[in-house]
Design a protein that fits this description.
CATH superfamily: Aldolase class I
Family: Belongs to the phosphosulfolactate synthase family.
Pfam family, one: ComA
Structural class: alpha/beta
Order of helices and strands: EHEHEHHEHEHEHEHEH
CATH architecture: Alpha-Beta Barrel
Protein name: Phosphosulfolactate synthase
Number of strands: 8
Strand content: 5-15%
Organism: Neobacillus thermocopriae
């Protein structure tokens, strides 16, 4: 029974307002229980880092996500490992065999030239939905705001459906300072110049998530969300937490 006035959320097969979880080893039994209750709050599931390669019952896990209409894909670290070892053809076959339809092209660990990533995306978009990632996992490597803008725009133009802004699972690099503080000037420039519906902001903690909800709106795309936090995040999006309590539909100008 709906009787509260809440910010309007996207529903169903969302193309924005995405909640993208990071699965860093959720057991099958726990996953079945979580998805039974909360699958409608999850849109994309990343098998974190390169863990897919050593995950027991990986095919069963992938099929479980797909049964609940959640899009699974492998973390960018596995892509980079395959690129480094010149095994991308084998990786593509591996993903097709598993029935994975999404692929991440990243350079969080390796310094893969932008032009190389653009060329790879142009090829991969024929067989996969591509998610690109911008930013380094090394907090000592800072990109100028102009570089962020250029890379994101070029990666979208190459055929990426979304671009992820690096934040790590700790929220200490990329769009964050090493101490975990959001690089607010960077975020403001990104959403001013690029459609935020095409950006997935890595936001691993409730504090980070609340920043983006308040700054951009309840239907901001958020990534690296812990699987046990999806209900709390949905409550935050709906203005049902103190920090987002006064979030009203008319205030959500962007999303």
């Amino acid at each position: 029974m709906d009787f509260l006035s809440l910010p309007k959320r996207t529903t169903g097969n969302r193309v924005y307002g995405l909640t993208c979880i990071a699965d860093f080893g959720t057991s099958m039994g726990e996953l079945r229980n979580i998805l039974a209750d909360f699958h409608t709050m999850i849109d994309i599931a990343k098998i974190g880092i390169g863990s897919a390669y050593v995950t027991p019952n990986l095919r069963t896990k992938i099929n479980l996500y797909k049964e609940h209409e959640i899009k699974p894909y492998c973390g960018g670290t596995l892509f980079e490992k395959c690129y480094y070892q010149n095994k991308l053809n084998e990786y593509i076959h591996y993903l097709h065999d598993l029935g994975i339809e999404w692929i991440e092209v990243s350079n969080g660990t390796l310094d893969i030239p932008l032009q190389t990533r653009i060329e790879l995306i142009s090829q991969l978009k024929e067989s996969f939905h591509v998610i690109a990632e911008v930013g380094s996992k090394d907090c000592r490597k800072e990109m100028r705001i102009s570089e962020w803008l250029e890379e994101i725009q070029l990666l979208l133009e190459a055929g990426s459906e979304y671009v992820i802004t690096e934040g790590r699972d700790s929220g200490t690099s990329g769009i964050y300072e090493e101490c975990g503080t959001v690089r607010c000037e960077l975020i403001h420039e990104l959403i001013k110049n690029i459609d935020p519906k095409k950006i997935i902001f890595e936001a691993p903690t409730p504090k980070h998530q609340m920043y983006f909800i308040k700054e951009i709106g309840p239907n901001v795309n958020l990534g690296n969300v812990k699987i046990n936090d999806v209900l709390m995040l949905e409550a935050q999006r709906c203005g049902l937490r103190s920090e987002t309590f006064y979030l009203e539909e008319h205030e959500c100008n962007l999303l």
